[in-house]
Design goal:
Number of helices: 11
Structural class: alpha+beta
Number of domains: 2
CATH topology of the largest domain: NADH Oxidase
Order of helices and strands: HHEHHEHHEHEHHHH
Largest sheet: 4 strands, antiparallel
Distance between the termini: 44 Å
Length: 243
Protein backbone atom coordinates (compact mmCIF):
# COMPACT_ATOMS: atom_id res chain seq x y z
CA UNK A 1 0.00 0.00 0.00
CA UNK A 2 2.78 2.46 0.91
CA UNK A 3 4.82 1.60 -2.19
CA UNK A 4 1.74 2.06 -4.37
CA UNK A 5 1.19 5.51 -2.83
CA UNK A 6 4.82 6.50 -3.40
CA UNK A 7 4.86 5.35 -7.02
CA UNK A 8 1.57 7.11 -7.86
CA UNK A 9 2.83 10.63 -7.11
CA UNK A 10 2.13 13.33 -9.68
CA UNK A 11 2.29 17.06 -9.02
CA UNK A 12 -1.07 18.85 -8.69
CA UNK A 13 -1.29 22.49 -9.75
CA UNK A 14 -5.06 23.03 -9.77
CA UNK A 15 -7.17 22.54 -6.65
CA UNK A 16 -10.81 22.60 -5.60
CA UNK A 17 -11.95 25.32 -3.20
CA UNK A 18 -11.46 23.30 -0.01
CA UNK A 19 -9.38 24.60 2.91
CA UNK A 20 -7.51 22.20 5.15
CA UNK A 21 -8.49 22.45 8.81
CA UNK A 22 -5.87 23.45 11.36
CA UNK A 23 -6.09 20.03 13.03
CA UNK A 24 -5.57 18.23 9.74
CA UNK A 25 -2.63 20.42 8.77
CA UNK A 26 -1.00 19.94 12.17
CA UNK A 27 -1.40 16.17 11.84
CA UNK A 28 0.35 16.28 8.47
CA UNK A 29 3.18 18.51 9.73
CA UNK A 30 3.68 16.30 12.79
CA UNK A 31 4.19 13.41 10.39
CA UNK A 32 6.79 15.56 8.64
CA UNK A 33 8.64 16.00 11.93
CA UNK A 34 9.17 12.26 12.21
CA UNK A 35 11.53 12.24 9.25
CA UNK A 36 15.17 11.41 9.94
CA UNK A 37 17.29 14.40 11.04
CA UNK A 38 21.08 14.65 11.09
CA UNK A 39 22.19 14.70 14.75
CA UNK A 40 18.54 15.55 15.55
CA UNK A 41 19.13 19.21 14.69
CA UNK A 42 15.63 19.39 13.12
CA UNK A 43 16.87 22.32 11.05
CA UNK A 44 13.54 23.26 9.51
CA UNK A 45 10.51 25.45 10.02
CA UNK A 46 7.36 25.91 7.99
CA UNK A 47 5.37 29.10 7.46
CA UNK A 48 1.66 28.38 6.93
CA UNK A 49 0.49 31.28 4.79
CA UNK A 50 -3.19 32.04 5.46
CA UNK A 51 -3.60 35.81 5.08
CA UNK A 52 -4.99 36.58 1.59
CA UNK A 53 -2.69 39.56 1.10
CA UNK A 54 0.41 37.57 2.05
CA UNK A 55 -0.65 34.70 -0.19
CA UNK A 56 -1.17 37.05 -3.09
CA UNK A 57 2.29 38.59 -2.65
CA UNK A 58 3.88 35.15 -2.27
CA UNK A 59 2.14 34.08 -5.47
CA UNK A 60 3.47 37.14 -7.29
CA UNK A 61 7.03 36.81 -6.02
CA UNK A 62 7.26 33.07 -6.70
CA UNK A 63 5.44 33.39 -10.04
CA UNK A 64 2.97 30.62 -9.17
CA UNK A 65 -0.40 32.38 -8.83
CA UNK A 66 -2.78 29.61 -9.91
CA UNK A 67 -1.88 27.00 -7.37
CA UNK A 68 -0.92 29.27 -4.47
CA UNK A 69 -4.20 31.18 -4.68
CA UNK A 70 -6.35 28.05 -5.05
CA UNK A 71 -4.67 25.56 -2.69
CA UNK A 72 -6.21 24.31 0.52
CA UNK A 73 -2.96 25.07 2.34
CA UNK A 74 0.20 26.93 1.36
CA UNK A 75 3.43 26.17 3.19
CA UNK A 76 6.85 27.78 2.87
CA UNK A 77 9.48 25.27 3.96
CA UNK A 78 12.59 26.82 5.44
CA UNK A 79 16.04 25.72 6.49
CA UNK A 80 16.27 26.94 10.09
CA UNK A 81 19.31 27.36 12.33
CA UNK A 82 17.87 30.33 14.23
CA UNK A 83 16.05 28.05 16.69
CA UNK A 84 19.16 26.09 17.67
CA UNK A 85 21.13 29.36 17.87
CA UNK A 86 18.50 30.66 20.29
CA UNK A 87 18.84 27.47 22.34
CA UNK A 88 22.58 28.04 22.61
CA UNK A 89 22.04 31.71 23.56
CA UNK A 90 19.74 30.65 26.40
CA UNK A 91 22.71 28.65 27.71
CA UNK A 92 24.93 31.71 27.38
CA UNK A 93 26.76 30.22 24.40
CA UNK A 94 27.12 30.80 20.65
CA UNK A 95 27.10 28.47 17.64
CA UNK A 96 28.54 28.79 14.13
CA UNK A 97 26.30 27.42 11.38
CA UNK A 98 28.25 29.07 8.53
CA UNK A 99 30.13 25.92 7.44
CA UNK A 100 29.29 24.24 4.14
CA UNK A 101 28.60 21.04 6.10
CA UNK A 102 25.89 22.79 8.09
CA UNK A 103 24.28 24.02 4.89
CA UNK A 104 24.14 20.40 3.70
CA UNK A 105 22.68 19.30 7.06
CA UNK A 106 19.99 21.97 6.91
CA UNK A 107 19.09 21.41 3.26
CA UNK A 108 18.84 17.66 3.86
CA UNK A 109 16.76 18.08 7.02
CA UNK A 110 14.21 20.35 5.34
CA UNK A 111 14.00 18.06 2.27
CA UNK A 112 13.27 14.99 4.40
CA UNK A 113 10.76 16.96 6.47
CA UNK A 114 9.04 18.22 3.32
CA UNK A 115 8.84 14.81 1.71
CA UNK A 116 7.25 13.31 4.83
CA UNK A 117 4.66 16.10 4.68
CA UNK A 118 4.02 15.31 1.01
CA UNK A 119 3.54 11.61 1.69
CA UNK A 120 1.30 12.25 4.70
CA UNK A 121 -0.88 14.64 2.67
CA UNK A 122 -1.16 12.23 -0.26
CA UNK A 123 -2.03 9.38 2.11
CA UNK A 124 -5.10 11.42 3.12
CA UNK A 125 -6.14 11.86 -0.52
CA UNK A 126 -4.75 15.36 -1.05
CA UNK A 127 -2.55 16.46 -3.91
CA UNK A 128 0.67 18.43 -3.48
CA UNK A 129 3.20 20.38 -5.49
CA UNK A 130 6.64 21.68 -4.59
CA UNK A 131 7.32 25.26 -5.67
CA UNK A 132 10.99 26.07 -6.18
CA UNK A 133 9.83 29.47 -7.37
CA UNK A 134 10.26 30.92 -3.87
CA UNK A 135 13.97 31.00 -4.73
CA UNK A 136 13.16 33.48 -7.51
CA UNK A 137 12.86 36.20 -4.87
CA UNK A 138 14.26 34.80 -1.61
CA UNK A 139 15.13 38.15 -0.05
CA UNK A 140 11.70 39.64 -0.71
CA UNK A 141 9.96 36.50 0.54
CA UNK A 142 12.15 36.44 3.67
CA UNK A 143 11.08 40.01 4.38
CA UNK A 144 7.45 39.20 3.63
CA UNK A 145 7.50 36.32 6.13
CA UNK A 146 9.73 38.07 8.71
CA UNK A 147 12.42 35.39 8.59
CA UNK A 148 15.40 36.03 10.92
CA UNK A 149 19.07 35.35 10.20
CA UNK A 150 19.73 31.63 10.01
CA UNK A 151 16.40 30.94 8.29
CA UNK A 152 16.14 30.62 4.50
CA UNK A 153 13.15 29.62 2.34
CA UNK A 154 13.95 26.53 0.28
CA UNK A 155 10.64 25.91 -1.46
CA UNK A 156 6.91 26.22 -0.97
CA UNK A 157 4.41 23.39 -1.03
CA UNK A 158 0.75 23.61 -1.96
CA UNK A 159 -1.70 21.03 -0.59
CA UNK A 160 -5.33 20.58 -1.54
CA UNK A 161 -8.12 18.55 -3.08
CA UNK A 162 -7.05 17.92 -6.69
CA UNK A 163 -9.11 19.46 -9.47
CA UNK A 164 -7.06 17.64 -12.10
CA UNK A 165 -5.57 14.21 -12.61
CA UNK A 166 -2.07 14.18 -14.05
CA UNK A 167 -0.31 11.11 -15.39
CA UNK A 168 2.68 9.80 -13.46
CA UNK A 169 5.91 10.64 -15.31
CA UNK A 170 8.08 7.62 -16.16
CA UNK A 171 11.13 7.61 -13.93
CA UNK A 172 14.59 6.48 -14.98
CA UNK A 173 14.83 2.68 -14.97
CA UNK A 174 16.06 1.38 -11.64
CA UNK A 175 19.14 -0.01 -13.43
CA UNK A 176 20.20 3.60 -14.09
CA UNK A 177 20.12 4.36 -10.38
CA UNK A 178 21.60 1.22 -8.82
CA UNK A 179 25.33 0.58 -9.14
CA UNK A 180 26.72 -2.60 -7.62
CA UNK A 181 30.01 -2.21 -5.73
CA UNK A 182 31.32 0.54 -8.02
CA UNK A 183 29.95 3.23 -10.32
CA UNK A 184 29.21 1.92 -13.82
CA UNK A 185 29.45 4.87 -16.21
CA UNK A 186 29.34 2.75 -19.38
CA UNK A 187 25.74 1.62 -18.99
CA UNK A 188 24.42 5.13 -19.70
CA UNK A 189 25.41 4.78 -23.36
CA UNK A 190 22.34 2.59 -23.88
CA UNK A 191 20.13 3.49 -20.91
CA UNK A 192 19.91 7.22 -21.68
CA UNK A 193 18.82 6.91 -25.35
CA UNK A 194 16.16 4.38 -24.35
CA UNK A 195 14.89 6.63 -21.58
CA UNK A 196 14.86 9.63 -23.92
CA UNK A 197 12.48 7.69 -26.17
CA UNK A 198 10.30 6.72 -23.19
CA UNK A 199 10.00 10.33 -22.08
CA UNK A 200 9.32 11.64 -25.58
CA UNK A 201 6.56 9.03 -26.01
CA UNK A 202 5.08 10.09 -22.65
CA UNK A 203 5.08 13.79 -23.51
CA UNK A 204 3.56 13.17 -26.94
CA UNK A 205 0.75 10.96 -25.63
CA UNK A 206 -0.23 12.52 -22.29
CA UNK A 207 -3.66 14.02 -21.81
CA UNK A 208 -2.65 17.69 -22.01
CA UNK A 209 0.30 19.91 -22.96
CA UNK A 210 1.71 17.43 -25.46
CA UNK A 211 5.19 18.21 -26.71
CA UNK A 212 8.22 16.61 -28.31
CA UNK A 213 10.88 16.46 -25.60
CA UNK A 214 13.50 14.00 -24.44
CA UNK A 215 15.02 13.85 -20.95
CA UNK A 216 18.54 14.66 -22.16
CA UNK A 217 17.30 17.69 -24.09
CA UNK A 218 15.35 18.98 -21.09
CA UNK A 219 18.21 18.48 -18.64
CA UNK A 220 20.73 20.08 -21.01
CA UNK A 221 18.50 23.14 -21.27
CA UNK A 222 17.92 23.19 -17.50
CA UNK A 223 21.59 22.91 -16.54
CA UNK A 224 23.14 24.45 -19.62
CA UNK A 225 23.04 28.02 -18.37
CA UNK A 226 23.20 29.69 -14.92
CA UNK A 227 20.01 29.75 -12.86
CA UNK A 228 19.21 31.75 -9.72
CA UNK A 229 22.78 32.95 -9.36
CA UNK A 230 21.60 35.26 -6.57
CA UNK A 231 21.21 32.30 -4.18
CA UNK A 232 24.85 32.22 -3.08
CA UNK A 233 24.85 35.86 -1.99
CA UNK A 234 21.41 35.46 -0.42
CA UNK A 235 22.47 32.45 1.67
CA UNK A 236 25.61 34.28 2.77
CA UNK A 237 23.45 37.17 4.02
CA UNK A 238 21.39 34.63 5.97
CA UNK A 239 24.54 33.40 7.71
CA UNK A 240 25.43 30.44 5.48
CA UNK A 241 28.91 31.42 4.33
CA UNK A 242 30.20 28.13 2.85
CA UNK A 243 33.30 28.10 5.08
Amino acid sequence: MTIKLLTSHASVRKYKDVTLSENELHEIVRAGQHAASSNFVQAYSVIHVTEPETRAELARLSKNPQQILSAGAVLVLCMDFYRVKKGANLLGKEIDFSLAEHLLVGATDVALFAQNIAIAAESKGYGICYIGGVRNAPEEISELLNLPEGVAPMYAMTIGVPDEANEVKPRLPVEAIIHENSYDAKKYDHIIPAYDKTMNDYYMSRGSNQKAAAWSDSMTAFLGEPRRTHMKDFLKKRGFEFK
